[in-house]
From TrEMBL:
Similarity comment: family membership: Belongs to the methylenetetrahydrofolate reductase family.
Protein name listed in UniProt: Methylenetetrahydrofolate reductase
Entry GO terms, CC: cytosol
Pathway: One-carbon metabolism; tetrahydrofolate interconversion; Amino-acid biosynthesis; L-methionine biosynthesis via de novo pathway
Length: 288
């Protein structure tokens, strides 16, 4: 099923993100994670692409498994930076062969440790245009957004480029992690004024250890609210209390977003299904 059709019939979706393990590691762990997550009956599960290593080949395989064995709709992330059209064509064929109907179209990040080969695409918008050009409406396409702005561009320009990206043919948007819902609400107001009317999904990451917070701040410009800093300071030497406090914080964030008519909650599971399950149970966002 296409994600665009899910949003036509539902006012609130719940979805999960998993990532493919490094190629040296087997797929059992992520498959075990998917077996637990699928019992929660999410609307879809997305699989990242190439982030943090050479795992591109596994995204389609895992997305196929989610659909065929877990009986859950899947979304394959797909980055274009440094790729030639031939590689993009190959992946599109692979997605089609595997019956994947949904793509999260992304630019990707410039690697910090090596030079990137010159590709045929500069921005996610170019990939979205290309997929529509080659495949028409074969895929439902989602894209990324940043409630605190993308770190490479000023906020106003970023909004302009987001509108361009959505106009290229995007059915839904999933956000980068944020820890302060106020950023989301003010961003949503701006999109409304710009008549960007696609479903906005909130990407929520339960921060359950100190390592995660370092990763978040290094990967994206996410403000750490005072309230959250206090939690980190108070429980820095008590990992289990930090885990519980981080979970409670994410639950509060989700409850507040749902009460404010968010279109979807997308949980970054980090391949740890127990935390996602606790959030589902505590918030009741999936009626089973
Ligand atoms: P774009 O929309 O192309 O924007 C990138 C930057 O370019 C922005 O600053 C934008 O304002 C600017 N820009 C856009 N168009 C133009 C233009 N025409 N001219 C000048 N500037 C322009 N990364 C991975 O490697 N794999 C993943 O699986 C993955 N999944 C993600 C999932 C989500 C929900 C999110 C939010 C991010 C994900 N990322 C992933 C990270 C993503 O690749 C990076 O955040 C990347 O820096 C930007 O990708 P984008 O698709 O938003 O880029």
């Amino acid at each position: 099923m296409k994600i665009a059709d899910i949003y036509k019939s539902k006012s609130l979706t719940t979805s999960f993100e998993v990532f493919p393990p490094n190629e040296k590691v087997g797929l059992e762990e992520v498959y075990n994670c998917l077996d637990v997550l699928s019992l929660e009956k999410p609307d879809y599960i997305s699989v990242t692409y190439g982030a943090g290593g050479n795992t591109k080949g596994r995204t389609v395989e895992i997305a196929n498994r989610i659909k065929s064995q877990n009986g859950v709709e899947s979304v394959a992330h797909f980055t274009c930076i440094g790729s030639k059209k031939e590689e993009i064509d190959r992946v599109l064929e692979d997605l089609e062969r595997n019956n994947i109907e949904n793509i999260l179209a992304l630019r990707g990040d410039y690697p910090v440790d090596r030079e990137l080969e010159l590709g045929d695409f500069n921005y996610a918008r170019d990939l979205i245009n290309y997929i529509h050009e080659k495949k028409g409406d074969k895929f439902s396409i989602g894209a990324a957004y940043y409630v605190e702005g993308h770190r490479e561009t000023n906020d106003l320009l970023d909004l302009f480029y987001l509108k361009e990206k959505v106009n290229a043919g995007v059915d839904f948007l999933i956000s980068q992690i944020f820890l302060d819902n106020e950023f989301f609400y003010s961003f949503r107001d701006k999109l409304e004024k710009l008549q960007i009317n696609v479903p906005l999904v909130a990407g929520i990451m339960p921060v359950t250890n100190a390592k995660q917070i370092k990763k978040i701040t290094s990967l994206c410009s996410c403000t750490i609210p005072k309230k959250f800093l206090k939690i980190l300071e108070k429980y820095e030497d008590n990992p289990s209390a930090l885990r519980e406090a981080g979970l409670a914080y994410a639950i509060e964030q989700v409850v507040d977003l749902v009460a404010s008519d968010i279109n979807g909650i997308h949980l970054y599971t980090m391949n740890k299904p127990e935390t996602a399950k606790k959030i589902i149970d505590a918030t009741g966002i999936i009626r089973k």
